[in-house]
Amino acid sequence: NAGVMQNPRHLVRRRGQEARLRCSPMKGHSHVYWYRQLPEEGLKFMVYLQKENIIDESGMPKERFSAEFPKEGPSILRIQQVVRGDSAAYFCASSQLAGLQETQYFGPGTRLLVL
Amino acid sequence: AQKVTQAQTEISVVEKEDVTLDCVYETRDTTYYLFWYKQPPSGELVFLIRRNSFDEQNEISGRYSWNFQKSTSSFNFTITASQVVDSAVYFCALSVSPTGNQFYFGTGTSLTVIP
Q1: pLDDT band, residue A97 (cuts 50/70/90)
Q2: Chain A contact for B99 (CB, 8 A cutoff)
Q3: B41 CB within 8 Å of a chain A CB
Q4: Could you count the other beta carbons within 10 Å of the beta carbon of residue A41?
Q5: Does B61 touch chain A (CB under 8 A)?
Q6: Using a CB-CB distance cutoff of 8 angstroms, which residues of chain A are in contact with residue B105?
Q7: Do the Cβ atoms of A34 and A46 come closer than 8 Å?
Q8: B32-39 and B88-96: which strand pairing?
Q9: B48: closest CA among B90, B14, B7, B17?
Q10: Coil vs helix vs strand at B85
């Protein structure tokens, strides 16, 4: 019974490079959420996706950030032209169903460091 | 607007002491859910409990107990007879109607249990 998988666990990029973060939800889960945790802060919602659809991206920065959850394969959070302020832990969560009563189960996170 | 406040940034206790972690939330919704997650030093987020706004019964699970009081908008977490393995950052989170997609997290309380 694998939980939410994220890779890589740690990612180092230089300013201007692209970062790709992958998330495989728990088996049977078709709803994926991405959160960002800045140092010494709580998690902040970024985006909610279902297969092939972005449902809520109200927490995503307008530029350089994009997310997808294709029909096959993991969800991808993509950050183009990274800057030092993008350094953070990025967590993916999944749930079996959508709705208020659903618990989100989190992956181990990807720690992104931008040099 | 939704907000979760964890006023205690860091707490240190000696092993076997009891400790209470505070969580105060703000929302205008009458239907919502509250959660606690544990983030051990390894970094992953572990789900501990979910409570809906219509259920004010306190809950006990082993050494863990939760006290939900709507009158004070609080959902406090008590660890009885703390152990070194309880050392972690603990996050309180809120999800609100209608969709509950987005979790609102507090900034976390870092608990250190000293042997």
Answers
A1: confident
A2: yes
A3: no
A4: 14
A5: no
A6: 35, 42-44
A7: yes
A8: antiparallel
A9: B90
A10: helix
